[in-house]
Amino acid sequence: MQPDHNHIKELYLQRLMDKLTEQEELELDAAMEDPGIRQMCQELDELYASPEMRELLREKPTGTRWNELMERMIEREDEPVRHMAIRNWAAAATVLLVIGVSTWFLWGRTQQQSINLSAATENAVKSYDIRLKLYSGEEVALTGPESNSSRLVGDVQLMSENKTLRYQQRSGGGSLWNTLEVPAKKDYKILLSDGTVVTLNSSSSLRFPFSFTGNTREVEVRGEAYFEVAKNAEKPFIVHTPDGDIRVLGTSFNVNTYQSGKTTASLVEGSIKAITGREEVLLKPDQEATFKTGQPIAVQGFEKSRALSWMNGVCFFESAGMNVIADVIDRWYDIKIVYDNPAIAGYKFNVRLDKARPLEEFLAVLKIAKEVNYKFEGNILHLQ
């Protein structure tokens, strides 16, 4: 009879916690006569190699399954994301930052696995510069040796420091549009001329003028961005997206346009109006509006921790398919995933993506938890 791999995994983890009974020790020793089982246990041993990890395992209550650990994490106390109060998922983020990748396995017989995934990897291909495309056609790299500097480019003084761009227009071109482009794996912040702060996620862009003229302040966003809009009752702030517009006076909100034909605006504080060609909807704090091409605007509540955690370099998913997670891997790693086994695209995970951790951690867990192999071909990752 074929051994139950999930059961053997649980037994081995119990051994690492010094909690096996004599009968279970005999059962595990017998199972490890199988070379495949022995290899699996060796890989588990490597993941739990550090004394800190072993200590955390020993503190885990006997019989507590990994999905119960997940539920406890979600119920912990609040944690701030920048200046916003974040609940539930942010608490899980705090725990995960300490525990690391290996304690987030769901080794139980459920279909989901919980994993700590990260986005900094030695296998990642070249990193791209954050670029500012000026209205004049000139392009300026904002990363690299001069990432913290002040320089005069044409008639504009650019000041980049601590992943933030400030500028001062000297003459001319004030109302013409410029484009700030943030590539995969990066994020960046810009202070607009009116005092509005915009934080851009990976694979995102912002079109904006160096100064706002007329009766409105207008910008255009692609990808994802968080806006902290300076108040000016006489000049509404308008964000153009591919699927509609967002009109505000002064507020904080997130805009996500990653999915083609869909824009989501999530309001943190203040008020915004979601506008399409057919309707206008006023939002209150803790509400978000979703515009889909050809459909009415949908309004629902949202969790700030999910919508805004990317600003802390992490992203959370609940019951997410591997195909959904792959989209974020593409943006954060600049790595494309190819499914040599199409079934892998539908595997479900409760997952935390962290830009500060290596991709190999996720791949090691994927191999153990789901017996998925992988290989790299340039910036293509094959899952088998």
Topology:
Layout: H1 5-16, H2 22-31, H3 35-47, H4 51-59, H5 66-74, E1 79-81, E2 84-86, H6 89-99, E3 112-118, E4 131-133, E5 139-141, E6 149-153, E7 156-161, E8 164-169, E9 177-182, E10 188-191, E11 197-200, E12 204-209, E13 217-222, E14 224-228, E15 237-241, E16 244-248, E17 252-256, E18 262-269, E19 272-275, E20 280-283, E21 287-292, E22 298-301, H7 304-308, E23 314-321, H8 322-333, E24 336-339, E25 348-354, H9 359-370, E26 374-377, E27 380-383
Parallel strand pairs: 3-25, 8-10, 13-15, 24-27
Antiparallel strand pairs: 1-2, 4-5, 4-9, 6-7, 7-8, 9-12, 10-11, 11-14, 12-13, 14-17, 15-16, 16-19, 17-18, 18-21, 19-20, 21-22, 23-25, 26-27
Helix pairs in contact: 1-2, 1-3
Report on the structure:
With 384 residues, the protein is α+β, with helices and mostly antiparallel strands. It has a domain at 1-54. The protein is 24% helix and 35% strand. It is built from 9 helices and 27 strands. It has helices at residues 5-16, 22-31, 35-47, 51-59, 66-74, 89-99, 304-308, 322-333, 359-370; strands at residues 79-81, 84-86, 112-118, 131-133, 139-141, 149-153, 156-161, 164-169, 177-182, 188-191, 197-200, 204-209, 217-222, 224-228, 237-241, 244-248, 252-256, 262-269, 272-275, 280-283, 287-292, 298-301, 314-321, 336-339, 348-354, 374-377, 380-383. A 10-stranded mixed sheet has the order 6-7-8-10-11-14-17-18-21-22. Strands 5-4-9-12-13-15-16-19-20 form a 9-stranded mixed sheet, with no helix packed on it. α1 (5-16) packs across α3 (35-47). The longest helix is centred in the first third of the chain and has 13 residues, at 35-47. It starts with a helix and ends with a strand. 35% of the residues are buried. Residues 60-127 have low confidence and may be disordered.
